[in-house]
Amino acid sequence: MPGSSGGQLAIMITRRCNMTCGHCSVESSPSIRGEPSDAELVEWVRAAAAAGVTAIRLTGGEPMLRTATVLRLVRECRRLGIVTGITSNGFWGRTPAQADRHVRALKRAGLSSITLSYDRYHAEFQGPDPVLHITNAAERRQVPLRVSLVRGTDEPELAQVVKRLEALDGPRIRVYDLQPVGRARELPATLHRGEIDGFCSAASFPALTDDGRLVACNGPSYFEKSESPLVLGPVGETPLAELLERHRTDPILDTIRTRGPVALRDELRRTPGFEDFPFRLRYTGICELCHQITRHPQAVAALRERLGQPEAVATRLAVSQVIEGNRRQGMLSTGYVNGVGACRVFLGAAWDPARGLGTDAEHLLGRADVDWRGIGTYLCGSGLARPLLRVVDDPVFARWAPLFFRDELRRRGLADGMRELVQRDVIGRVAGALGELGGRGVLLKGAALLMLTPAGQLPRATSDVDILVDPALAPRLRDRLLEQGFAGAPGAGASTFQHLEPITFQGVAVEIHTRLMPDFWGLPERAMIDDARPLGGSSVLWTLSPEGILLHAGMHTSASFFSFGLKTAWDVLNVLRSSAGVDWDRLAAWALSTGAPRGFWTPMRLLSAELGLPVPSTFLSRAPVGSGARRIETIARHRLFRATEGIFDLDVLTKAGMMLLLQDSLRGRLRYVTAKLLWRGEHLTTWGAAARRARHADVLRQAWRQYRRYRQAMARSMAMPREADQG
Ligand code: SF4
Questions:
Q1: How far apart, in Å, do the first and last CA atoms of the chain sit?
Q2: What is the pLDDT of residue 193?
Q3: Is residue 206 within 6 Å of ligand 1 at its C-beta?
């Protein structure tokens, strides 16, 4: 079903609700009388199955006021091979036990996902506890869950609601614009954002109402008259399959879902006789414009004729085919949107602000399933908040991104700018100390790239200052910096395989390295250091060569277990811009000579392919292939574009498992295990503590949690159907 729901349907099993929210598009309340019988609902579900529907969302009102009916329908759907989800206000999760009982029953019946509506309007009737209880229960029982929020101009309140949900680990927050429909028409006009641009994803998901009509979207078309193109007809008079086909093929609905009501407005303006159609200068929302046009019979007739012309049909078909092609390639999946898709849009915008957000951005950011909170955390953690400040007020950004997301970027961007000043000061002090000691050091990672960023360009934010010095010089440099006001334990030795215990200055940590990375990575460190070059005329500060920086960046991404991959993508772009040229042959030779070539090639290949980095394909084709490489690529693909857990957030077993996968050979694995055992011998205190934790089974429990979280994340991105419910 190109351009349409892809076989999805919402069924409103009641309009009754225990709440009377001020924004409810179908004016639900406890006093609503009349609802379809169980027998009717089962019949609708069977008709939907016969019509090719593959996913049904049970909505209301509040569907869980009919718990037995919900369970019966979910079971029936499972029997028919239909995936089911439910949208609820969560009143049934008042206590953890109650939430768990219901989630367990729903899961047993076959439910695939839960959407909870929670925003300032729902908050007038219940606090966040039920949402938290149900989320925890869903997490335990591995049922994908999301929370949908409705936003108006009162975005600070939205931010407060999001804050209340901060304790939740896992749920994705979806944001829908408040629309002037149903009870929301009574709200002050100033509360509406008044955004009308963009396609309407809600029109891709038809809904069967409680009184048995198929309507174009779930909620906003409920009160439309039977003549409206938004009302397809009663299911009692016309077979559901036929109504769904009308929904799929109607040129007006097809235009709304592919180009939006604004496209209808533009077409109508070009239609003879409608030049003076009374369009307003300002609308309270996209649905108001949609209703104004679709309520006008002559306008509808003229548009049908105009949009039915072969040229217009061909254009829509082309758009539909692109959408369908993207869907087949997984580019319309929630996982893609919140992973690679978001990374592409934001990397492009941060790197080249003059280009803006790009043409793909609107279709991506306009989707309700954008996980703004998750993307915000990822972008800030990748250090891109500051470069993104230049596009944060871009109209496309302002149209779709919630204020809490833009505010977080602003806050982090400004903080990153302040931090950079301190980091530059710290680097200057380190250079001064090195000069006094007659030594030299090689700046590494973010600090090196900060210094290599040309004037006028913004660097990504970095946390520590890493500098590599001769092992004999390292303790002396540390002591000298401590004497000069840096904070840290005097005389402390190595805290990792590769650097001394960090010291800090005004909150910036300095890690003095004695080697680039632990020995078991097998980097050609000697050759890399010999190839280092002085940094802009300095005699004491050096950086690795472009090849050295790229090799180190790739390996380090693997050592960080592929979190914040955008950071590495940015660094690759930075190296390619700031160097006269990369010797790809030398880089390939170095990479292949390491102890774990996969550690370099895996992130480099995936980031280049998915984000379109200008790395030569002839170079990438030299990566070794094999089943081990494919396994680690699967994990890396899942993590690079969205993972925000740092290395310390992963449990010991998960880390060890990934490290062993990264090592290509038995020799490499033995080298890794030996290195760990030797390190253990040297750090009995640390390992004594680890052993105590292991005795309490913490490590195993953590590993199990980690494993479940990955499985859930994968299930969530694969199983969650796209939704268009308006909260
Ligand atoms: S614009 Fe509003 S009323 Fe029109 S189809 Fe979309 S959700 Fe429904």
A1: 25
A2: 85
A3: no
